[in-house]
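Suppose you are handed only these lines of text.
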Amino acid sequence: MIDHIRKLILEAKRKADAESGSNVEPQFAQKIDWPVTCTVGPGLEGAIACESAVGYVNGSAGKLIYRGYDVFDLCAYSTFEEVTYLLLHGELPTEEELDNFKAELCRRRHVPRTLRQLMSNPIEEMNDMAALRLGVDFLRRTHSKVDTIEARPRSETAISSDEDSIPMEKAPYGEKKAIYEFTKNALGPNKPVDLATCYDLIAAMPTIVAAVHRIKAGKLPIEPHPDLGHAANFLYMIRGEKPSLLEEKVMDVALILHADHGMNASTFATMVVASTLSDIYFSIGAGIAALNGPLHGGANEAAIKALQEIGHKDNVRAWLDGKLARKEKIPGFGHRVYKAYDPRARILGPLAKELAKEHPECRTLTETAEVLEEEMVRRFGESKGIFPNVDFYSGLVYMTMGLDHHLFTPIFAVSRVAGWTARTIEYLENNRIFRPRAVYTGSFDKKYKPLAER
Ligand code: ACO
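From them, the structure of the protein bound to acetyl coenzyme *A can be written out as follows.
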């Protein structure tokens, strides 16, 4: 089974290489001398926020790289645990390192106190992402002493923690070490983030997501299974039964594919909070909040709804013509960075079809997806660079595994926490608080009118 999945992934890689190659985009893949000049669009489009060796999204070649490794190879040969280790530590683990890392994660999956605190809240009235964010907050209380005065990061050793006091008309010139306010040493012994805390979050978030899901369905949470890997245990805690080998592998691949993706909105939100030397739990809470938005984490639900609305492969063309005539966007297609085929969709597409063999009830949806993809690529692939994105197939994959659509975005968070933590650790090595400026377009010199005269 694993060999068969590997073959499908390597076949997808071969297609990607044949269609788009792997030339890097020089502006986004070389060391830079700060300050940097770049053209910035609304929403900070095109802005370079930092340097990073964690990962690279090659939008024109349709490639995704984690720490130098092609995500196609990571999906074919490794596991989510291996990839998480790679993202956090910068290198692939040795066998011994991987065994230790897996044992660390396994031990940290158990968060009974957090679950108890969570269950004393009206979770059934909450959105799953809101409950996850609350769970992370309870994790913070249980796992850390960050609320004690002694544990606060020492702001007095920082050169400046409040940029409002600094005139920012000029770009920050000077030596690299002068640019950054918080050096490694300034963080002192009470760092706002350390590896152990990242392990805690990566290990515990699946437990929280699964528990919330079960509680909302009127069921009791399930103890983590010590013999199962990260992906299999996650599915087990959600469904209460061990997944098939195929389901385990596909979930593992889906987690690898969502683990990191450049300076996306939730990663940026995480890093902005971390850059204030707040702690990693608050930072991850911000990431979860940002991911909750439909423009970021929620498009796979919309893609599934569209497929359900179409109903059958024979209805695709008429449905599509209607949508396009009304100038509506087709969910699961197009991407701000990828103007080639999204490598994550290239992998998840064949896996969705493979899963549908085990779950015939989902075959109609999968066939409908196939025809919609063909039609969209034929109409807009070459001409506009619009191809399926990760969300087109991820929802289908999860649905085929019997996972409720409320779980789609939390699953994304369970994976992306690897990238959030890896990038935060990296950024804090040479931290500088994020502080862009806004252009003021209001008026000046208005005269204050007393309330009675207004
Ligand atoms: N369906 C139809 N046409 C599209 C689509 C689509 N899904 N996406 C882009 N286009 C067209 C636009 O209509 C526009 O055409 P025009 O030049 O004739 O006006 C052109 O392509 C450029 O569109 P923009 O919206 O400017 O492209 P941008 O790069 O800013 O948008 C985005 C990317 C937001 C993802 C867009 O493609 C979209 O809304 N897709 C649907 C929602 C979706 O799938 N989101 C998930 C993204 S992946 C993720 O977040 C994990």
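What can we learn from it? The chain is about 55% helix and 0% strand. The CA atoms of residues 82 and 98 lie 7 Å apart.
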